[in-house]
Amino acid sequence: MKHLAVVLLQFGPVGVFLLAIIESSGLPIPAILDISLTLVAWKSPEHAYLAAALAVAGSLIGNLGLFSAARFGGSRWVKAPDPEAPARFRQWFQRYGLITVFVPAVLPIPLPLKVFVISAGVLRTGWARFIAVVVVARTVRYFGLAWLGLSLGGDAPAFLKRNMWTFTGAAAALVLVLFVLVWLADRRGDGADVTIS
């Protein structure tokens, strides 16, 4: 996959778009898209934010493909020995599940986003909510990476590697904060105003 990424990078923002589709549709190419986007931003500053926008679009296309496949083929995947288990998981996921999609989608950390995208599809999460979560998270992430590439230049990939644990800690803190907000909203009886799911 690294060789494919090198080839696609020759096409600048269009290459980033294609990488985003491939990465988000289920093929394992961890960190290659993030690094590619920062390199395109560094080497072609005039195309930095175009590349970020195309990365968001490509990621949405890839994730929607995975989500759709799970949504329409999901009845075969939801099997458990305890007949109440799928119902309990569905109830939990409807309340908190899109938090688990948002966090790995927004932060450049090695979390298994695809597992949560598939879960969202199998459990028939609403299209609009799923699309909104992916677009918001990926916009923050990819425009942030483009800005990083513009600001740090060739040091941006090294910066991402050096700060992986910081990003991981930020992800854990963000998950905790979001879960607490949803839990507090549930206790007050107005959860629909706070939850992102």
Global outline: globular
Q: From N to C, what is the helix and strand string?
A: HHHHHHHHH
Could you name the ranges where pLDDT drops below 50 across 5 or more consecutive residues? 191-195
Number of strands: 0
How many domains make up the coordinates? 1
Reported for the largest beta sheet, the result is: none
Helical segment count: 9
- What is the CA-based Rg, rounded? 18 Å
Mean pLDDT: 81
Structural class: mainly alpha
Q: Could you give the distance between the termini?
A: 33 Å
Strand content: under 5%
How would you describe the overall organization of this protein?
This protein has 197 residues and is mainly alpha-helical. Helix content is 75%, strand content 0%. It has nine helices and no strands. Helix 2 runs parallel beside helix 4 (48-73), helix 4 (48-73) packs across helix 6 and helix 5 crosses helix 6. It is globular, with a radius of gyration of 18 Å. Residues 191-195 have low confidence and may be disordered.
Short description:
This protein has 197 residues and is mostly helical. It contains nine helices and no strands.
